[in-house]
Amino acid sequence: METLSPIVRKRVEALREIQDEHDELEAKFFEERAALEAKYQKLYEPLYTKRYDIVNGVVEVEGAKSETPAEDTASEEKGVPDFWLTAMKTNEVLAEEIQERDEEALKFLKDIKWCKIDNPKGFKLEFFFDSNPFFKNSVLTKTYHMIDDEEPILEKAIGTEIEWLPGKCLTQKIMKKKPKKGSKNAKPITKTENCDSFFNFFNPPQVPEDDDDIDEETAEDLQNQMEQDYDVGSTIRDKIIPHAVSWFTGEAAQDDEFDLEEDDEGEGEEDEDDEEDEDEEDEDEDEEEVSKTKRRQLQDQRRAEGMEHRWIALLSASSSDILRAVAPFSFPSYILFESSPIG
């Protein structure tokens, strides 16, 4: 501002006043949007309850009993088996996180909910499990603390500590190593190692309190882990919870693929344009090589005739013609006068 002239500074001040008015309206928009989201979240709740009851066999859908043959009554399935596991596995982001060894535990998942939190700003995911042979917890939670509620800037994430039952931890595996030959101890050596698992989601990456000691590579790796973790959480919140049955049936995945295909088509058109430009450039380079060859042939002819002094004029005229021909394609001028073919 100090470098501006007084009249321009006055105009900028007027622009600032306009910006202040805009910011006031924007603040009202965020406030009204939050109220609208809260209103509809309450309206969704009864629908989610109905979904829960059907998925877990609390209530029966009208007419479903009549669809079951009498001989199958004893083995009748309850609710919709593997509902949440199937819905999550159908989503590309979550499918990468779910390992085969996780699936048996995720079959006990009864419901997933989310809610906003205000202090600090953010949101919380809740995973409700039936009693199972893997862990004691009936509810696993994941909370995201955001720096700004309106912008997806993650401050930190906190997950539930899972109380694994003996020998059932899915986030670790036991490695057995044979003892060396001649060793007095004939028993195999066992070693516990961390392994990939969806349940690592509840043990999110943490930013050290003293981040001065983190080198650039470690910081970048940590940032990537946090971004991936947030991507998983926001996918569950924004896609899986509100549209679970569409993911269970696969319809939502097809819609996602259709959207990706549209994006790919747009990129494909750009690629075709690039290829056309490259073809035009190749044609111009071919024409240039032909012109150079003709100039060399003409030069040899003029030398033979003792007319070398006239070649300079011919070369200048030929160069101008070539330059006009290739100018629309913005070739660097130095290409026109290289002594060897461009290849």
From TrEMBL:
Q: Which positions are tagged coiled coil?
A: 8-35
**Pfam family membership, one:** NAP
Q: Name one GO biological process term.
A: nucleosome assembly
Which stretches are tagged as biased composition: Acidic residues?
Answer: 253-289
Entry-linked InterPro entries: NAP-like_sf, NAP_family
SUPFAM superfamilies on file? NAP-like
Q: Keyword Ribonucleoprotein: yes or no?
A: no
Q: Which Gene3D superfamilies match?
A: 1.20.5.1500, Nucleosome assembly protein
Q: Name one GO molecular function term.
A: histone binding
From the Swiss-Prot or TrEMBL record, state where the protein is found.
Cytoplasm; Nucleus
Q: Which UniProt key words apply to this protein? A: Chaperone, Coiled coil, Cytoplasm, Nucleus
Q: Name one GO cellular component term.
A: cytoplasm
Give the top-rank taxon of the lineage listed in the UniProt record for this protein: Eukaryota
Tell me the segments the record calls region Disordered.
Answer: 251-304
Q: What does this protein do?
A: May modulate chromatin structure by regulation of nucleosome assembly/disassembly.
Q: Which family does it belong to?
A: Belongs to the nucleosome assembly protein (NAP) family.
| Protein name per Swiss-Prot or TrEMBL | Nucleosome assembly protein 1,2-like isoform X4
